[in-house]
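Minutes, project huddle
Topic: does the predicted pose make sense with iron/sulfur cluster bound?
PN asked that the exact inputs be recorded in the minutes so nobody has to dig through chat later. Recorded below.
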Amino acid sequence: MDFPDNISRLCGKKHFSFGCHPDVACFTECCRELDLALTPYDVLCLCKELHMSAAEFFDRYVVVEQDEKGGVPVVYLGMVDDGRASCPFISESGCKVYNSRPGACRAYPVGRGVTLAANGDVREVHVLVREAHCQGFAESDSHNVAEWFKNQGLTEYNAINDEVLRLLQHEKAAQSLCLTQEQKDTFILALYRLDEFRNMVSSADFCDKYMLDAEERQAILADDMSLLRFAIRWLQIRLFTEKT
Ligand code: SF4
Ligand code: SF4
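Predicted holo structure (tokens), as shared on screen:
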């Protein structure tokens, strides 16, 4: 595969030099003019960090891009209209939500492409992205991909994002996905607005319709990750099996 000049393939245990800290001259320069797509887990972590409901978070920070051809909607972090299109969470001293920053912010300068193999295995491709303004490559710290992802706390992010991938790359989605607006709204509700989805799953009507007994419902509602994993499985039924 051919990549642009600033992107190169990172294979196996190949090391790269990179460091990012408050003393780099470009500190915070990368947190502007971003098309920053958020995953469901990103939104969950940010809502917790900010002590906000998903509805409040969506009202304040999110732009949803609808696919007119019926594909799944994409959730972006909206940039601020300050003349520099800054991230709403940047400050002079750095990221205000650093401990819960999105996976894409953690991964940079590494990009991770994932596909599902026919046997269900997740296949990863990694690339190194050298943004022109980024001076972090002049730092001497050396990492390989596995070390970088572990140091950036990406293990849990990648694991749950790979489960979402099973929905996005579902064989029926690959054939011809043409979601109605109601299905697109359901996709956002179940994956991104977990507090509202929790109320929906708690209802007697939902449990009757999907034949959830009390024990199953308790396990699903036990914590946010169990609920998110259920949302991924449930959406495969709701979007690809049920009649609208
Ligand atoms: S541009 Fe690169 S080195 Fe500078 S703050 Fe951003 S990631 Fe760090
Ligand atoms: S969330 Fe934090 S790290 Fe990510 S772009 Fe915004 S300020 Fe930068």
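Observations noted during the meeting:
- The longest strand covers residues 122-129.
- The mean pLDDT is 93.
No decisions taken; revisit at the next huddle.
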